[in-house]
Write a structure and sequence with these properties.
Number of strands: 6
Order of helices and strands: HEEEHEHEE
Helix content: 10-25%
Largest sheet: 6 strands, mixed
Strand order of the largest sheet: 1-2-3-4-6-5
Distance between the termini: 31 Å
Length: 155
């Protein structure tokens, strides 16, 4: 299988927080967040981005019941800060957070429509581990991409 980029006439913008029942303020309704890490990035006193890492959380299927896996649940960079290294710094901090808890792997989910994220995860040394074309029944044009980053091989 190979993946390729295809330009589109109308750019596709997806706001995950606008989906009913989703978004950060609702996570505690679905999961016990006591094993989650939350990292903030600031530049010149202003919020520049953030990352959330999930670990050892009952009912979080992305973890696959494994104690050696952490999931990069969310990573965001303020639009005006993109391309300035904030995302890379947040990703490395998430790696460090997971590594400090004995995880061997960091797992990340994105979709085939998010080429910027795919490029970013590849740049950060992640490997595309799985593609599920049927993960989102209500969004037949989207495929789930699962990226993995080995932590035990880090310097």
């Amino acid at each position: 299988m190979s993946l390729s980029e295809t330009p589109v006439a109308d750019p596709y913008v997806k706001d995950y927080d606008a989906i009913a029942g989703e978004g950060p303020v609702r996570w505690a309704e679905h999961f016990d967040l006591s094993n989650w890490g939350m990292i903030s990035a600031c530049r010149d006193g202003a919020k520049a981005g953030g990352a959330v890492i999930a670990f050892r959380t009952a009912g979080l299927h992305m973890l696959g019941g494994r104690d050696d896996v952490a999931v990069l649940w969310d990573i965001r960079v303020a639009p005006g800060q993109r391309g300035a290294g904030v995302g890379s710094a947040l990703f490395r901090a998430a790696e460090d957070w997971a590594d400090a808890r004995g995880c061997n792997w960091l797992k990340i989910e994105t979709q085939n429509v998010n080429t910027a994220a795919c490029r970013f995860y590849q740049k950060m040394g992640c490997t595309l581990g799985a593609i599920d074309r049927f993960a989102y029944p209500g969004l037949p044009g989207e495929a789930q991409l699962l990226w993995w980053k080995a932590l035990q091989a880090r310097p």
